[in-house]
Amino acid sequence: MGETFSQLGSQKDEDKSILPPDPAIGSKSANYSSTGSSKAFCSCVPCERAAGGSFMTCPTCQGSGEIPRELEKQLVALIPYGDQRLKPRHTKLSMFLAVFICLVTSSLIVFFLFPRTIVLQPAGLNSSTVTFGEADVCLNITSILNISNNNYYPVTVTQLTIEVLHLALLVGQVSDSLLLHISPLASEQIFYAVANRIQDENTYKICSWLKIKVHHVVLHIQGTLTYSYLSHSEQLAFQSYEYVDCRVNKSVPHLLVPRPP
């Protein structure tokens, strides 16, 4: 400590007091002995200049061992430059571990929460019923839609809207509100029914005439599926073409299509 102060200034500057002179501070021994009775001063260990040594008087308290209490929080203690407290250990290792943990955590969050595609796959016609009017054909169909969730979090299907077209004309539509929960990496099926009314004259003849052996009509199915995940909603569109026998009722069971890899 003495060598440090000797490099900063002369002996005259070292002996100069940082605090203004106070008549209440007497001799060193008297002030130090009266520390317990004084209320306006904070005590510290008195500094004495050793004979023949390289020590110096403390410039803060001038060796009295006391400083004014109002300056207690304004004065800073002198710590040697070589003190181990000024040399934090394992700093590089701690910083490397902190950065590594942050990178790994961020990568895992992005991997598991990154939105993946919901796969919609029409599974075909499940059943159909046919009735004839005077000039139209009422064709009620029930179809199947397979839904595959490729995410690592569940999704909820909230709405399904279907439109059926025949010869580019709208013949039936339906909109259903759903609440279907699909688990992570799982698949589910939705059955939807649409009542169609075909008023085309040629189609009516194809479906009603017994002389015609093939009674098939082509229905163009267009749909929109609304689903939500992580407080976010999205819509997916799909379409399919179904060949329906418009002469007799038909029922074809379908199994659940496994989730694509």
From TrEMBL:
Spans through the membrane: 93-114
Source organism superkingdom: Eukaryota
GO cellular component: endomembrane system; plasma membrane
Keywords, comma-separated and alphabetical: Membrane, Transmembrane, Transmembrane helix
GO biological process: glycoprotein biosynthetic process; macrophage activation; positive regulation of canonical NF-kappaB signal transduction; positive regulation of interleukin-1 beta production; positive regulation of interleukin-6 production; positive regulation of MAPK cascade; positive regulation of MHC class II biosynthetic process; positive regulation of nitric oxide metabolic process
Main subcellular localisation: membrane
Transmembrane protein 106 N-terminal domain segment(s): 2-92
Nucleotide-binding as UniProt keyword: no
Domain Transmembrane protein 106 C-terminal, residue spans: 115-251
Location(s) in or outside the cell: Endomembrane system
Pfam families (UniProt xref): TMEM106 (PF07092), TMEM106_N (PF21002)
Residue span of region Disordered: 1-23
InterPro entries xref list: TMEM106, TMEM106_C, TMEM106_N
Family: Belongs to the TMEM106 family.
Descriptive protein name: Transmembrane protein 106A
Species in which this protein is naturally found: Catagonus wagneri
Gene name as annotated: TMEM106A
